[in-house]
């Protein structure tokens, strides 16, 4: 009986009168206005070139490709460590592809070490792939949620160890 169809609605008037502005309802029901570029597009990956050295932590909700040197922790959605890259610190990401060198802990849902990878540190993962030729020194631990654990669990003992160190200062 009732329909949101535009079939029975009159078109623009012939007397030069312009069409009324489209409302949100018009846009939702009219598929003629769809263009593939209008939905949220994923931004391009941030790239740190091979001549760049970063001292400090990096955090992004997007993708990042490292070709240079980073001395600090990195958190990202997709992290690609290039063949010329060196990272000294913890890396945490949903997807991690290591082509270069990482010195520190690696935590990711999907971790891939290519044949040119050099990793010195523990890997906590949900799924892992290690290609032939990759160098790895450390332990590998599978967890269902490698991103949710790790920092909090490992920070607790460090706090407990720091507390006794302050007692001699108060004597």
Brief write-up:
With 171 residues, this protein is mainly beta. It is 13% helix and 36% strand.
What does this structure look like?
- This protein is mostly beta strands and 171 residues long.
- The chain has a domain at 46-148.
- It has helices spanning 24-29, 151-166; strands spanning 46-48, 53-55, 58-59, 63-66, 69-71, 74-81, 86-88, 91-98, 101-103, 106-113, 118-120, 123-130, 135-137, 140-142.
- The longest helix is centred in the C-terminal third of the chain and has 16 residues, at 151-166.
- The model is unreliable at 150-171 (pLDDT under 50).
Number of strands: 14
Number of helices: 2
Major β-sheet annotation: 8 strands, parallel
Termini separation comes to: 87 Å
Outline the fold blueprint:
Layout (H helix, E strand, L loop, with lengths): L23 H6 L16 E3 L4 E3 L2 E2 L3 E4 L2 E3 L2 E8 L4 E3 L2 E8 L2 E3 L2 E8 L4 E3 L2 E8 L4 E3 L2 E3 L8 H16 L5
Parallel strand pairs: 1-4, 2-5, 3-6, 4-6, 5-7, 6-8, 7-9, 8-10, 9-11, 10-12, 11-13, 12-14
Name some characteristics of this structure.
disordered C terminus, mainly beta, 8-stranded parallel sheet, 6-stranded parallel sheet
